[in-house]
């Protein structure tokens, strides 16, 4: 069965500092991997996705993530945090629909990012 | 603009009452989903539908019901059998039912509070 673990339910950084949000996954088949962002009382918005092309994926708002198969990780980074980055971030994994699989997303529990001035 | 519309955004319910949350999409997506979000719990799948007139239970379907009579619409009913219904509910859709890329598009959510 697939699963996602996000290390750290809360992360706090200073404005201009590096953002690193950790995500490890478990999957028996090559996965699709996603990062979503959620602002308070809103839905989720896709930041970026890995679908077996380049292992370094660039997304919106200056975020990027690197797929590392040997470490089963898909950590999200941004070189310089901005106040507007304060939100909750969710990592998600899905299988590729092999056999009878539905390919539904499995979400991590989320990491709340705070940005200090 | 294309997107997913959820209504109402805020809803209050007395114990023992059923309530229906609306979800409409004009993205021409085949698949639609309902998730429940609780603080620190991430998103948990309630029901999903890959095609009109068909739907499947997710991980926490007990106390909920859905219908998919039209491609654009996927309403969720929270019944009195749901013991702890206070939560934030998110509707989502995807192009191919998640079998290729799994990318989901989300609505703005509906916050249900049981008084």
Short description:
With 117 residues, chain A is an all-beta fold. Chain A contains no helices and eleven strands.
Describe the protein's architecture and organization.
The complex is a heterodimer of chains A (117) and B (115). By secondary structure, chain A is mainly beta. Chain A has no helices and eleven strands. In chain A, the strands form two sheets. In chain A, strands 2, 4, 5, 9, 10 and 11 form a six-stranded mixed beta sheet that branches. In chain A, strands 1-3-8-7-6 form a five-stranded antiparallel beta sheet, with no helix packed on it. The radius of gyration of chain A is 14 Å and the shape is globular. Chain A starts with a strand and ends with a strand. The model of chain A has no long low-confidence stretch (mean pLDDT 89). With 115 residues, chain B is mainly beta. In chain B, 0% of the residues lie in helices and 50% in strands. In chain B, the strands form two sheets. In chain B, strands 2, 4, 5, 6, 9, 10 and 11 form a seven-stranded mixed beta sheet that branches. Chain B has a four-stranded antiparallel beta sheet with strand order 1-3-8-7, with no helix packed on it. In chain B, a hairpin with a 3-residue loop joins β4 (31-38) and β5 (42-51). The N and C termini of chain B lie far apart (35 Å). The mean pLDDT of chain B is 91. The chains are: A mainly beta (117), B mainly beta (115). The interface between A and B is medium-sized, with 26 and 30 residues.
């Amino acid at each position: 069965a697939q699963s996602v673990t996000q290390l750290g339910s809360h992360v706090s950084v200073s404005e201009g500092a590096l953002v690193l949000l950790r995500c490890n996954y478990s999957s028996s088949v090559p996965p699709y991997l996603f990062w979503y962002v959620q602002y308070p009382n809103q839905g989720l918005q896709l930041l970026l996705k890995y679908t077996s092309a380049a292992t370094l994926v660039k997304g919106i708002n200056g975020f990027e993530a690197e797929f590392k198969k040997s470490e089963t990780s898909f950590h999200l980074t941004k070189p310089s945090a901005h106040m507007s980055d304060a939100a909750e971030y969710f990592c998600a994994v899905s299988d590729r629909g092999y056999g009878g699989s539905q390919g539904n997303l499995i979400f991590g529990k989320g990491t709340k990012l705070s940005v200090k001035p | 603009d294309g997107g997913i519309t959820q209504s109402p955004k805020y809803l209050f319910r007395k114990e023992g009452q059923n309530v229906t949350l609306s979800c409409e999409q004009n993205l021409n997506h085949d698949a639609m989903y309902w998730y429940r979000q609780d603080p620190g719990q991430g998103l948990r799948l309630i029901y999903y539908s890959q095609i009109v007139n068909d739907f499947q239970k997710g991980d926490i379907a007990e106390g909920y019901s859905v219908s998919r009579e039209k491609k654009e619409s996927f309403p969720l009913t929270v019944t009195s059998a749901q013991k702890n219904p206070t939560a934030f509910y998110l509707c989502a859709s995807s192009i191919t039912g998640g079998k290729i890329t799994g990318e989901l598009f989300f609505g703005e959510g509906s916050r249900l509070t049981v008084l």
